[in-house]
Amino acid sequence: MGYSMGGKGTWEWGMASPHRFAAIIPKAFIPDLSKLEGMVELPIWAMVGTRDSKPRAEGIPAMKKALEELGSTVVKTTVFEGANHATTSGKSKQLEGVYEWMFSQRLPRSKDEDGSDE
What domain range is 60 assigned to? Predict the structure, then answer.
């Protein structure tokens, strides 16, 4: 989970190593849409305000659309009406269900991890 440059870092690390994370929540960032194929199965909840900069406000919904076109069913976005870059962080902290969603995600387990391949 990260906001602004932290959101960009969250996104970049998720893009580079999607197998390492059960889910990511990047907020108020400019998404790189060049390497989405590896992120199709990674649960993502991205957030942005409608009054954030154009690359963020338009980029996050475009990211969701691009991932869905690749077959993702685990990407979601929240767009805060009237929120700017600074107020998105506070709004995201007030959003119900964020932490429950994050902590309900799980990494896939290998056979070795669950003991069924002994």
Answer: 1-6+42-101
